[in-house]
Amino acid sequence: MTTTSRMLGGDQAVHDVVPSDDDLALLLLIRHFEQALLHLFARGHVSGTTHTCLGQEVVPVTLTPLLTPAFVFSNHRGHGHYLAQFGEPASLLAELTARVGGVCDGRGGSQHLFREGFCATGVQGESVPAALGMALNMKRTGRSEVAVAYIGDGTLGEGVVYETMNMAQLWRAPLVLVVENNGIAQTTATVNAMAGSIAGRAAAFGMRYAYAEGIDITYLRAELADPIERTRAGEGPLLIEFRTDRLGPHSKGDDTREAAVLDRLRRDDWYPRFAAAEPERFARIDQRQRRLVDQVVDEVLSRPRVPEYDR
Ligand SMILES: Cc1ncc(C[n+]2csc(CCOP(=O)(O)OP(=O)(O)O)c2C)c(N)n1
């Protein structure tokens, strides 16, 4: 399934469906949080490394309501997954800056967040078999939940992903594997690293597959609701390929893409498109979320550092 409500010939943006106030607020919370984080990193406030999900916000905002209740296994680019699930920027920022009140007391940092219903890892592919284990537990204990593993397309280079897909399908586990296909892994374009297709990988195991692309959150949710519900109902795992774009660097300042490519990505990004489609509503929510993130930054940085990380 794809949604491109954008082009009607030429290069003219004609009609983008701006999501509900709540969805737009969440998109903007994630966007401003990630942008603030890069500034904080440059000023030396971030403990450890970080990868932002700038450009990819539509993925967790679309999927999270469909996946609840779930146990989510996130990855190195997981702030959007966390904020969509818990909506708590302060606990996340405190974690990333090793201030008191962080999600896991400053021990996890950006890549290793843990709380009930959510676990992230910076080791590519590591979460996928763990998510299968959780899915099997859900099945055996009769819980109507799904286990979700978010991975990038580059992580399809990890063999354990295929062992897991095989067993998940064989055992009809309630596992949703979300591949955020942003067309690049660190500095390697997907076309230079992946033979075949993501759909073909799912087909090889007889696993159900859904494709999503675009920024029309309402439409995408309507299309994805049934496949996810079928996994919850016991029909076995689902692989969702969500085509998206990484707007920022891989981590911090390490973007090797051509300026023209980045210009195109910025132009096609949801932020300017939604701003153009509904300027007043967008500006109102945008300003509110900017202020919210500014306040969170000020409040969290005023907290004491976690003593054991006060180097
Ligand atoms: C097992 C393992 N190998 C290498 C790395 C280093 N590494 C971190 S992110 C990354 C690229 C991941 O690309 P992809 O899965 O496409 O996700 P994206 O960064 O595009 O979101 C690499 C190679 C790692 N974290 N884990």
Automatic annotation (TrEMBL):
Cofactors (names): thiamine diphosphate
Q: Which CDD domains match?
A: TPP_E1_PDC_ADC_BCADC
User: Which SUPFAM superfamilies does the annotation name?
Assistant: Thiamin diphosphate-binding fold (THDP-binding) (SSF52518)
Question: Among the record's GO biological process terms, what is one?
Answer: pyruvate decarboxylation to acetyl-CoA
Q: Does the keyword Oxidoreductase apply?
A: yes
GO MF terms listed in the record are: magnesium ion binding; oxidoreductase activity, acting on the aldehyde or oxo group of donors, disulfide as acceptor
Is Oxidoreductase a UniProt keyword of this protein? yes
Which UniProt keywords are present, listed alphabetically? Answer: Oxidoreductase, Thiamine pyrophosphate
Superkingdom of source:
Bacteria
Query: Locate the Dehydrogenase E1 component domain: which residues?
Result: 29-256
Q: Which InterPro entries match?
A: DH_E1 (IPR001017), PDH_E1_Alpha_Subunit (IPR050642), THDP-binding (IPR029061)
One Pfam annotation, family name? E1_dh
Q: Which PANTHER family does its entry note? A: PYRUVATE DEHYDROGENASE ALPHA SUBUNIT, PYRUVATE DEHYDROGENASE E1 COMPONENT, ALPHA SUBUNIT BACTERIAL AND ORGANELLAR
State the protein's name: Putative TPP-dependent dehydrogenase E1
